[in-house]
Specification:
The protein is an alpha+beta fold. Helix content is about 50%, strand content about 10%. The strands form 4 sheets. It has a 7-stranded mixed beta sheet with strand order 1-7-6-5-4-2-3, with helices on both faces. Strands 8-9-11-10 form a 4-stranded antiparallel beta sheet. The protein has a 4-stranded antiparallel beta sheet with strand order 12-13-15-14. Strand 4, helix 10 and strand 5 form a beta-alpha-beta unit. Helix 6 crosses helix 13. The termini are far apart. About 30% of the residues are buried.
């Protein structure tokens, strides 16, 4: 019979996980009420208490926040994850047992977990230390080694180190800040830390230089220092490379040093076939394992396996404890390992390794992708075989876009013709990694910065596949997206120099050299006005480029226009993104230039509108006053008298015409209206069928900035036929319209009367004109 308390605990945990993983948030009324309330602000504890469902609802609201998108759900942990979470609840329940029963239970849990892990990872006669921080195990090991070499360290402390200063060696490819953390927690100066560089001539660039390490250890021993501990990697954090552990173990035995190994490649020790370089890790003095991400187990501790014969020193270093409660750290892992079983654990590690091999095989078939270090120097055959073995068995795949393997097409820029190509390629690879992570999120790829290679894309399924549920189809989707992006990157890289040359030919455009921008380039429109001070000029530049960016973003094109990254040093610029193969760079630059000029001219018009209108009004008043004076001189003084003017106008009518005026806002001047009357007749002549018409028409679906015929392969046969039919119909329609516009022959007197009737005459001369026509 199961303990009712344990059964109830399991049911409560299952119900709680269903609520948290359901993704069902509050109703709209509940959300509005929560926004208007003060529940999210820390306050006093309620006196009446709350039920479990209300508390879980509060936890869910705090996890999701105000995000209503389903993409921000809690990650599904699965049944094995529920077992790990149940272990934390059981640990709290078991801790209230009576002392003797608790001691027996914790001893059994600790011994079982230690035995299983040592057999899984081929570490014979080892002990285990479980810890939350993955650096804590190495820290305890350092204390153990110091207690071993300095017998009075536990009583005298740092004074025992004065005779011989200890030295801790670590590879330059280790985790950043690891050595500094050890020195800080141990109370040692940073002079006790020695960073060993990686290979520069032979072997991988991410492996520790063994010959240089040997020289450093000899120099330290000759200077009176004590070589204490060496930290090696079985899978570096960046590239996943493994140090030469067998050779390092020989040096440690020779100089009586402790060898500690860590890294993601240690997970492959559970497999049937393991590379010789990783198998050498089983001979080290200690190793740190992180089974949580490897097996997809949340909140399980890291494990440090070590070998030491003196339990008293292990207890003094903190690797073992007499407190039964501390031994309960292994309970979540104890439950999860039993749930998965030996075959389940091996299957998960094997699945992750197969995903890496699948991706590596596909990457080798893609052009412009570099997957391993290509050394120009000569290497031995044995060294080359070891490098190939490490690459084929490493569960970490690091690749990088490089234009070295792609031949530039005609018309493009030659490789290496621009400066800072390393920075540009880093920017392109950063964009590539972000796009792959966004479009194929289940792949778990990320961007990593390596010292020698630069920015690369990393695929480490051992750290992500179990939690994300990565499958083979996800790797296939990753390769497919990568194959689609490589031509875009190659094209953009080739057209980047062409875009720069085109921009430099324009006087009003400035090319901004931004090596960190993954795109075609950066441009700024510079106004031609030079009579403004610096502040006003900067305001005008900001206004013009802001409006120009809005205009460009409204265009129907495949290009992406933006204001650049949020923390970019360049301001008031237009950043142009990834280009396509059929991009017409000249048309793009010409469009930017013309739009900028239009915005500049319209800006000048609005800025000078007040002054232009004021001057126009003054000029209109002067011309009206002048027109009145001319009328007075023409008509005489007598015609200005009311009664006399009527008599004189009856005997001798005045044939005066009023001259109309128009105000041109663009030019800021007054014009006569006489040319307006002649426009109508001229428009008929301009519409003659013999005048040529510019054909600026684009095919349906064709976007801006594309060269004619460059993207013809993408147009289907059906669309081509429809375009031809449409063009034929338009040709027939234009011919029919031209025939309709041909004037018919009419008698001469009708043409004469029509021409005379179309003429406008001033007011007062209509009667005379009619008599003349008659």
């Amino acid at each position: 019979m199961m303990d009712p308390t344990l059964a109830e605990m399991g049911n409560h945990l299952s119900d709680a996980m269903k609520i948290l993983e359901s993704g069902k948030l509050e109703t709209e009324q509940g959300q509005e009420g929560r926004k208007m309330s003060w529940k999210e602000i820390p306050g006093p504890l309620q006196g009446d208490g709350q039920d479990v469902v209300s508390i879980l609802q509060l936890v869910q609201n705090l996890m999701h926040g105000d995000d209503e998108e389903q993409g921000h759900r809690m990650q599904f942990v699965g049944e094995q994850g529920h077992m790990a979470l149940l272990g934390h609840s059981l640990a709290a329940y078991i801790s209230v047992l009576e002392r003797e029963r608790l001691r027996k239970l914790t001893t059994r849990i600790l011994s079982d977990t230690t035995l299983w892990l040592c057999r899984l990872f081929r570490y014979e006669n080892g002990s285990a230390y479980f810890h939350e921080d993955d650096r804590e195990g190495l820290l305890k090991v350092c204390r153990l080694v110091m207690n071993t070499h300095y017998e009075d360290f536990t009583t005298e402390g740092f004074t025992a180190l004065s005779s011989k200063h200890p030295v801790i060696y670590q590879s330059a490819a280790c985790r950043p800040g690891l050595g500094q953390h050890l020195c800080s927690q141990l109370g040692l100066p940073l002079s006790c830390l020695c960073v060993v560089p990686c290979n520069t001539m032979f072997g991988s660039l991410h492996q520790m230089d063994v010959a240089l390490l040997d020289k450093l250890v000899k120099d330290d021993r000759d200077s009176g220092k004590l070589p204490l501990l060496l930290i090696a990697n079985a899978g570096t954090p960046g590239a996943g490379h493994t140090d030469k552990l067998s050779r390092l173990k020989e040096l440690c035995v020779q100089y009586n040093m402790w060898l500690h190994v860590e890294g993601v490649n240690l997970a492959t020790l559970v497999l049937g076939q393991v590379s010789s370089t990783v198998t050498a890790a089983t001979k080290c003095d200690s190793m740190t394992l992180t089974p949580g991400p490897w097996l997809g187990l949340p909140a399980v501790p890291a494990v440090t396996l070590y070998r030491h014969e003196d339990p008293a020193l292990s207890l003094a270093a903190g690797l073992t404890s007499s407190q039964p409660v501390e031994k309960l750290r292994a309970l979540p892992l104890w439950l999860s390992l039993q749930y998965l079983g030996h075959d389940g654990i091996v299957e998960r590690i094997k699945h992750a390794s197969q995903l890496s091999q699948q991706l590596l095989e596909h990457l080798k078939t893609l052009a412009s992708i570099k997957t391993s270090d290509i050394l120009d120097s000569e290497v031995s055959l044995l060294e080359a075989l070891r490098m190939v073995e490490d690459e084929l068995n490493s569960p970490v795949v690091v690749f990088r876009f490089s234009h070295e393997n792609s031949a530039p097409s005609s018309g493009g820029s030659v490789e290496g013709s621009y400066a800072g190509e390393r920075d540009i390629l880093d920017a392109f690879n950063r964009w590539l990694g972000d796009q792959l992570a966004e479009q194929v999120p289940l792949s778990g790829v990320d961007v990593v910065e390596l010292e020698d290679e630069g920015t690369c894309v990393r695929f480490s399924p051992l750290m992500t596949a179990a939690a994300l549920g990565t499958q083979e189809n996800d790797v296939a989707a990753l390769v497919e997206k990568l194959a689609e992006m490589i031509p875009l990157l190659c094209c953009t890289l080739r057209l980047r120099q062409d875009f720069r040359d085109e921009v430099l030919q324009q006087a009003s455009l400035s090319y901004i050299e931004d090596l960190n921008w993954p795109g075609l380039g950066v441009v700024r429109f510079e106004p031609r006005t030079t009579d403004l001070d610096e502040d006003k000029r900067q305001d005008r530049v900001e206004k013009i480029n802001s409006d120009l960016l809005k205009k460009l973003m409204e265009l129907d094109t495949d290009l992406n226009f933006s204001g650049g990254p949020e923390f970019s040093e360049e301001k008031n610029c237009i950043f142009i993104g990834i280009a396509t193969e059929d991009l017409d760079v000249a048309e793009l630059v010409e469009t930017i230039m013309s739009l900028g000029r239009d915005i500049e001219e319209s800006g000048k018009l609005f800025e000078n509108m007040t002054e232009v209108v004021r001057k126009g009004i003054q000029e209109a008043e002067l011309q009206l006053q002048k027109a009145n004076e001319e009328k007075l001189m023409e008509e005489g003084v007598l015609r200005q008298i009311p009664l006399v003017s009527s008599v004189l106008n009856w005997f001798s009518p005045v044939q005066a015409s009023v001259k109309g005026r128009t105000f041109n806002l663009a030019e800021g001047c007054l014009d006569s209206t006489e040319p307006v009357y002649s426009i109508k007749a001229q428009m008929r002549k301009e519409d003659s069928p013999d005048s040529p018409k510019a054909n600026t028409r684009r095919f349906p679906g064709q976007k801006l900035f594309r060269r004619p015929g460059a993207g013809s392969d993408s147009i289907s046969e059906t669309s081509s036929v429809s375009q031809l039919e449409e063009s034929f119909r338009e040709t027939l329609h234009s011919q029919a319209a031209d025939e309709a516009e041909v004037p018919q022959e009419r008698p001469a007197h009708i043409l004469e009367e029509t021409a005379i009737a179309d003429q406008r005459v001033p007011e007062g001369q209509e009667a005379e004109s009619v008599e003349t026509i008659r």
